[in-house]
Design brief:
CATH architecture: 3-Layer(aba) Sandwich
CATH topology: UDP-N-acetylmuramoyl-L-alanine:D-glutamate ligase
Number of strands: 15
Radius of gyration: 18 Å
Strand content: 25-35%
Order of helices and strands: EEEHEHEEEEHEEEHEHHEEEHHH
Number of helices: 9
Shape: globular
Mean pLDDT: 89
Low-confidence stretches: none
CATH superfamily: Ribokinase
Distance between the termini: 44 Å
Length: about 300
């Protein structure tokens, strides 16, 4: 049995920050699985892409000996993420092609403690697919793709029509503050987290980029302070790394606040370089510990 089976399209991303442009693999399944693997977790990935892109997009996962089920699609999902050099919390995102959607049969043969679902567009995962995943184990969901309409090229955020039925299938939910507001109509992220929990998720995480996050579960709200970054290079994948670190700690214990602090420190380390998370669990613990000491001074 795997600790986590990450399901989602691995993408060909073009990252533009100011005048610098890079092309690299991306997507929630990519960033989350690599971080979990580097924390020592037994992880699998289920993805879809055009055969011609496999060598470029899967090489790092294969080097880490992550088990991959890559189902051929006529197209690969492609994105362009444009950031201002002055504010990496915000981006303009444009979509190109989108790979084929996932089906329940794509999960056949996989057993995991968590099935992490990382849809990138509204076309990726149906309500039936969410129900099929939840029948196999606990589901963690990054809701971003279910509120992102990619039909016009530039990403437009919109409501998730099947939200209430979908959230009933979810154990751990992650949303950023904009996504939480669209789903609930609440401008206050703490109120949004509580409303989202009312539709079924056992744990709800709402992130605010460089301003921290909140975790709501069992009637308790945990406020997680941000860990200041010593170096900021690229924010792509920070949310996925946060959730990977959170799941890693949640598989160890039920201390949500400590899991959140660890996740915040891991996301901060991701900011310091392009590409996926490359630190160790000890590195993250050292950053979290140093921040705790700084906050007490």
């Amino acid at each position: 049995m795997y600790d986590v089976c990450a399901v989602g399209h691995i993408t060909r991303d073009r990252i533009r920050i100011g005048n610098e442009v890079r092309e690299q693999p991306g997507g929630a399944a990519y960033y989350l699985s690599l971080a979990l693997r580097r924390f020592g977790r037994n992880v699998a990935v289920v993805t879809k892409m055009a055969h011609a892109d496999e060598s470029f997009l899967l090489s790092e996962l294969r080097a880490e000996r992550i088990d991959i089920s890559c189902i051929e699609s006529a197209t690969t999902t492609t994105f362009e993420n444009v950031y201002s050099e002055l504010d990496l919390d915000r981006r303009v995102q444009k979509a190109g092609s989108v790979a084929a959607p996932f089906a329940c049969s794509d999960l056949n043969g996989f057993r995991a403690r968590f099935f992490h679902l990382g849809p990138l567009t509204t076309r990726d995962m149906s309500l039936d697919f969410l129900r099929g995943a939840s029948a196999r184990g606990d589901v963690s969901l990054d809701v971003q793709g279910l509120v992102r309409d990619a039909s016009g090229g530039e990403i437009r955020m919109d409501a998730w029509p099947e939200m209430e039925e979908g959230l009933a299938c979810v154990t751990v939910l992650k949303a950023d503050e904009d996504e939480a507001r669209i789903l609930t109509g609440e401008n206050d992220p703490e109120q949004a987290a509580q409303r989202l929990a009312g539709w079924g998720p056992r744990e709800v995480i709402v992130t605010f980029g460089s301003r921290g996050s909140v975790i709501y579960s069992a009637g308790r709200l945990h406020r997680i302070s941000p860990v200041p970054a010593s170096k900021v290079v690229d924010a792509t994948g920070c949310g996925d790394t946060y959730l990977a670190a959170y799941l890693h700690r949640r598989l160890k214990s039920g201390d949500l606040e400590r899991a959140g602090r660890f996740a915040s420190a891991a996301a901060t380390l991701t900011l310091g370089r392009f590409g996926s998370f490359h630190a160790t669990e000890r590195d993250v613990e050292d950053v979290a510990r140093a921040d705790t000491i700084r906050a007490r001074e």
